[in-house]
Amino acid sequence: MVVMSNTVRIYGRRTEVRPWLKREELERKTLDKVFTGIKLKGLKILDAGTGIGYAAKYLAQRVGRGVLVTIDIDASSLEMFERLAGKELIEKLIFINADLRTLALISNNYFALACLYYT
Question: Which of 13, 15, 40, 60 has a Cα at 20 to 30 A from 79?
């Protein structure tokens, strides 16, 4: 997480950074277990429901030259992801601000892996 002060804005509310850093560590450990044995480099991956971006950050760090498409109904997800991961990782993804119930926007696309990670 890119930290600029002791607080961070999450879904429009200011909160302390420390609990979110701890949560990020726990999320990474969980995602390590989920993706054990799965080669992510070079894949075209869909992250459905980006939220704050823990799974997107994890996947962006591991996709290499692959493609990471993230979709979330809340436009602030991209902002939160940028704060969490920094500009270097944000350049590795395609963010779509849309409702997942209207999946017609991705119906003609093929993804090697689709991730809907909810915590």
Answer: 40
- List all residues 6 or more positions away from 50 whose beta carbon is below 8 Å from its beta carbon: 56, 70, 71, 72, 77, 78, 81, 95
Residues spanned by the domain of 28: 7-115
pLDDT tens digits, residue range 70-80?
A: 888 888 887 77
CB atoms within 10 A of CB 40: 18
Q: What CATH number is given to the structural domain containing 62?
A: 3.40.50.150
Amino acid identity of residue 109, one-letter, is N
Could you give the number of structural domains in the chain? 1
The predicted pLDDT at position 104 comes to: 72
In sequence order, the 6+-apart residues with CB closer than 8 A to the CB of 104 are: none
